[in-house]
UniProtKB/TrEMBL annotation:
Location(s) in or outside the cell: Cell membrane; Membrane
Protein name per the record: Sec-independent protein translocase protein TatC
GO biological process, one term: intracellular protein transmembrane transport
Function summary: Part of the twin-arginine translocation (Tat) system that transports large folded proteins containing a characteristic twin-arginine motif in their signal peptide across membranes.
PANTHER family for the chain: SEC-INDEPENDENT PROTEIN TRANSLOCASE PROTEIN TATC, SEC-INDEPENDENT PROTEIN TRANSLOCASE PROTEIN TATC, CHLOROPLASTIC-RELATED
UniProt KW Cell membrane keyword: yes
Stored InterPro entries: Sec-indep_translocase_CS, TatC
Topological type in the membrane: Multi-pass membrane protein
One Gene Ontology cellular component: TAT protein transport complex
Organism this protein belongs to: Phaeocystidibacter luteus
GO molecular function: proton motive force dependent protein transmembrane transporter activity
The keyword DNA-binding appears for this protein: no
């Protein structure tokens, strides 16, 4: 059993490791429960969610088509996705089923994971920081889900449509492996969700005195370059997709500067 009643300030290093082990264990169980639920609902996980971006009826494609029509053309409208997904490995479908279920389990259990992390670090925080626990957990969970939605509804469809329709010759047909397709959608979705946690990470680093708003402003230009490189890596090689990814990340960077400034003002007020 975890030593929940013991004064955290009197706990040894091994006691803290024991506490951490129990928090990680409970978080892992939550992920497994979410993964089992996703594994059972195979039709929803694959036919509706994962294979959604390969359908011309996907909401993102319909929205882009409508916008293109309103602007006087139908360049971005299409009625079919000219590629098919195949499985070439004996255990390929089962492996992708497991992997997709685990990713879904992480997304489903993420709010609980954040709550477990908060419970672990809470004893070492000041009283006023503990009061903000509920809002911190809520903001962290919402940012993650917002990033997941952005990755799934914006970046993934653009990537699937670009790479799925790109050809070097009419003699070459795109036949995409199941593992390649599933990895693309799940990796982009999960990575974007984690990327949207930038303001939360900055908050904790600023609270520890590692980051300052002046430092973030000083290296803003470097951050822009890093963001553009990152956007080029996770998106199709076209300027529109890269801009769509870079804009929200830079907005989050600016928000993070404001967060760091607020933390610094609070620290200075305490010192005064």
């Amino acid at each position: 059993m975890a030593k929940t009643k013991k004064d955290p300030n009197a706990m040894s290093f091994l006691d803290h490791l024991e506490e951490l082990r129990w928090h990680l264990l409970r978080a892992t169980i939550a992920i497994l429960v979410g993964a089992v639920v996703a594994f059972i609902w195979t039709d929803i996980l694959f036919d509706v969610i994962l294979f959604g971006p390969k359908s011309p009826d996907f909401i993102t494609y319909q929205g882009i088509c409508w916008l293109s029509t309103q602007l006087g053309g139908d360049t971005f409208c299409f009625t079919e996705m000219p590629f098919e997904i195949i499985n070439t490995d004996m255990a390929g479908q089962f492996s992708m089923h497991m992997w997709a279920s685990i990713v879904a389990g992480i997304i489903i259990a993420f709010p609980y994971i954040i709550w477990e992390m908060w419970r672990f670090i809470k004893p070492g925080l000041h009283s006023n920081e503990k009061k903000n626990g509920g809002s911190t957990i809520l903001i962290t969970a919402l940012l993650f889900l917002l990033g997941v939605g952005f990755g799934y509804y914006v970046i993934s469809p653009l990537s699937v449509q670009f790479f799925g329709t790109y050809t070097v010759s009419s003699d070459v047909e795109n036949t995409i492996r199941l593992g390649s397709y599933v990895s693309l959608v799940t990796t982009i979705t999960l990575a974007t969700g984690l990327l949207f946690e930038l303001p939360v990470i900055v908050y904790f680093l600023s609270s520890l005195g590692i980051l300052t708003p002046d430092w973030m402003r000083k290296y803003r230009r470097h951050a822009i370059v890093v963001v553009l490189v990152f956007a080029a890596v996770i998106t199709p090689p076209d300027p529109m997709s890269q801009v769509l990814v870079a804009i929200p990340i830079m907005i989050l960077y600016q928000i993070s500067i404001s967060v760091s400034s607020r933390v610094l003002r609070r620290r200075n007020a305490k010192t005064a």
